[in-house]
């Protein structure tokens, strides 16, 4: 079904695309020799890439002047018109811009119409002397508002930053200058987003990860390859154990596969044709080509196919937490959110066709239970194929229709019909249920996913023997709960602002003796808490004030302060993140903590 806000989002995308053109027009006003290249709408705004002559590249301080020119030009843009032109006319129009000429050649070779879009005044407005410099012509596929001067509020956009970007995203090409802008329907929405971003900076997982000592990056190891400290590793293992607990109770079995594979495996699965450029390739002394695995599903097919399977054996549910590797461009790497080594809590279910909906519903239950411990409300998106571009997908139309129907049935049964329709968001081998969640400051994230695949079972010839003794085709369900440990932790760190629930926290309680004479008693409390498997630290160096401040920076859930009164009464004063809770015996404190850990209380 269509998302209720789809029309609004499409309208906003048109505004953002129009604003990209407006940005280019304003830049040309200030930098007549700048060469505009490509300027699309993106999430939350727009950008445009330019080549500036040497010595004239604008800096952050120049954005205000460019933004002002955008607002000066906007009142004259009361129409956006377009015309289909010949390739020769297009080349004449952009004769001095090699980037546009390259695009024109590509469009011409594809046989697609070449369109020029003109933004500027109509005949009546053109009488204004200032209107001439407001006209802007661009090579474009379209998608603009009809009357920018009316449709775009002049206070609804803002230029925010400048960055480098390779032409067409290829690091072998020239580095261009990218100017980013934010854009929303209203000033209020823009202001709200800016406030959200300010809060996001405070919650940046890279900043918190460094403060709390969770992970590090090393220039010697390489960008995009995080190294996990003991504290960060505790969080990873807690998450991994939780996912395994949920899967184990539902009949999943652990498997282990190697980190490299022959090229032929991915050729057979179809991944090599799609992703060869994103693979880390290994060429052996014997002239064989291997790849660091970018995904696990083809390997798991070989475990399933290692012996004959009867209907009595179905379904087979395999899972493992393992790293995969993808050769991302260095400019796209971003903390834990985009890395080269990706740890997946991956699982694959091999089942009969009549078992699909039950198995998908089981994965849905696992996802719901897992995310309930983080306070996320989930909305499913049915990510299906775009029927207008069949070449993007493998497999028969009949199987695609069946797969989409099966997933839709599960969504409607579990969620109703208010799901998000994700046309064109399918994987190349099958549709998905992608789960969307909003974090503590209102940002939307795609998290867990369930994918239904008829393509790989067919390509690998996977079957089971049915009740009649005949070979029966099977289906394959790909399911990731966190998806990527790294990306999930980037989201979780920022969602909690580093204040993790007790069960996730690397240090669950700190014991702080007021002075040296209280250390022996404090150590006895530490011993009792450790015996109950509570992660506890004794902090007895530096001043008490400094130790208390450190526990706040590290956002340790609980603190025990031990002084004369506690030693005399054989108890301890328990403090939480919000302040003092009360004075209790150590048995009472241990019982309180262990129950909270056991239930994974939020």
**Structural class of the secondary structure composition?**
alpha+beta
Average pLDDT for all residues? 93
What percent strand? 25-35%
Q: Please state the overall shape, judged from the principal axes of the Cα atoms.
A: globular
What is the third-level CATH name, the topology of the largest domain?
A: BirA Bifunctional Protein, domain 2
Please bin the fraction of helical residues.
Answer: 25-40%
- Biggest pleated sheet: 8 strands, mixed
Give the class-level CATH name of the largest domain.
Alpha Beta
Quantity of strands, as a count: 28
What's the CATH architecture name of the largest domain? 2-Layer Sandwich
Parts with pLDDT < 50 across at least 5 consecutive residues: none
Number of domains: 3
Let me know the CATH homologous superfamily of the largest domain: Bira Bifunctional Protein, Domain 2
Strand neighbour order, sheet with most strands = 11-15-16-23-20-19-17-18
Output the number of helix runs: 19
Radius of gyration: 29 Å
Distance between the termini: 33 Å
List the helices and strands and how they pair.
Elements: H1 6-30, E1 35-36, E2 41-42, E3 45-51, H2 63-73, E4 79-85, H3 87-93, H4 98-110, E5 114-120, E6 136-139, H5 148-151, E7 157-166, E8 175-183, H6 187-202, H7 205-212, E9 215-216, E10 227-228, H8 230-248, E11 253-254, E12 260-262, H9 263-269, H10 271-275, E13 281-283, E14 289-292, H11 297-304, E15 316-325, E16 341-351, H12 356-372, E17 378-384, H13 397-415, E18 420-423, E19 432-438, E20 444-453, H14 455-459, E21 463-465, E22 471-473, E23 475-484, H15 485-496, E24 509-513, H16 519-531, E25 536-538, H17 544-553, E26 558-562, H18 564-569, E27 572-576, E28 579-584, H19 586-598
Parallel strand pairs: 11-15, 17-18, 24-25, 24-26
Antiparallel strand pairs: 1-3, 2-3, 3-8, 4-5, 5-6, 7-8, 9-10, 12-14, 13-14, 15-16, 16-23, 17-19, 19-20, 20-23, 21-22, 26-27, 27-28
Helix pairs in contact: 1-2, 7-15, 12-13
